[in-house]
Amino acid sequence: MVSASTEPWSLPRVVVAAPASGHGKTTIATGLLAALRRRGLTVSPHKVGPDYIDPGYHALAAGRAGRNLDPFLVSAERIAGLLRHGASVPTPADVAVVEGVMGLHDGAVGRRDFASTAHVARLIDAPVLLVLDTTAQGRSAAALTLGMAAFDPAVRIGGVILNRVGSSRHETLLRDALAEVGVPVLGAVTRAAEVAAPARHLGLVPVAERAPESLAIVAALAELVEATVDLDAVLTLARSTGPLTAPAWDPVAAVGGPADAGRPRIALAGGPAFTFSYAETTELLTAAGADVVTVDPLRDPALPTGTRAVVIGGGFPEAYAEALAGNAALRAELADFDGPIVAECAGLLYLGRSLDGVPMCGRLDLTARMTGRLTLGYREAVAVTDSPVAVAGEPVRGHEFHRTTTDPGHGDRPAWRWDDTAHGFVAGRVHASYLHTHWAGHPEAARRLVEACR
Q: Which residues catalyse the reaction (predicted)?
């Protein structure tokens, strides 16, 4: 157990990575979390990159919030501190499991390996457990592993888990080849044993949308890992790390202490339609002095009593458009709400007049529709208009992830500008856009929102 947030902490930790997307990182990482928890260990789950969905499965497996480690969104300097913070609350963890993103060395476009899994592994000084899809592959798996390790000698590949193994003979061939290059095999999963979760767009369907099925999937993944992975060897690898010397990230210090706003109540949208929210958002708002409560736009007929501001994050509202429309009372209240409203992506669509012809709140004069095109990627934005969370001219980093478009594409008073184009809407006390941001990267947004509640 760590004795203080600033003293070195010998936190066992391991990064689950792969040569590319689709090799089975989420299967193995989620199964590891659940299997280690079954052993009675307190496990801290983390995800490289901006993704909201994998951390939901991680949280279900670990029994505590899944957290993101994204150098692009929050800066490289905060990564070790955020890992330490996440592994410390609500109680210190025995081990941290970090799932990577895309391929091990794939970073932000045009920035080499910045924000890659390899970059994060270096920042937190953690060994890598490489998951390999061995379909139609034999000794070449060893060459691939050797190349992944040699590409960046500062990243230590401590072991391999073979995935989608075809037979016992296939497994023997793979193990012999990897022994030749000195990389231990810590597990082997056959194609027949693989467990899959349903996908939407990219990644998995959010946990909140299919809770009973998600529980069953996590249980199956735990059993899969217990049967196919050497958990003792994984723990030995995780314990081979040095101590974390960076102090834990502190939300109170990040916002400069509580704002002088009389502890306003801020409602955060949740439920199956709005599952995209970073754990640090609530922590920062609370640190800034807010009383954060949850509202489910699918079921709650009104905002919680005393609500002074509303935050509506991302999700898949297109899957729940009819149900959202059916909650006419809450839509009407949001249309007339006179406090600050901050909306990202799904929240933007919900505040518009309609989504695929289905009525929404009508707070913003826009219509939205699904398209066949995925808009995805990091963005370096500049605030165009003063709002409850940003000051004009302020730079902010975020990411987009959507298959919808709005008409118009931005308001007369845009929220952001990037790539020489205006984006989003600032209308009265509403700030809405497609841009997802991680407030640990610009914590002043939380303090500004609390102060705007006065």
A: 345
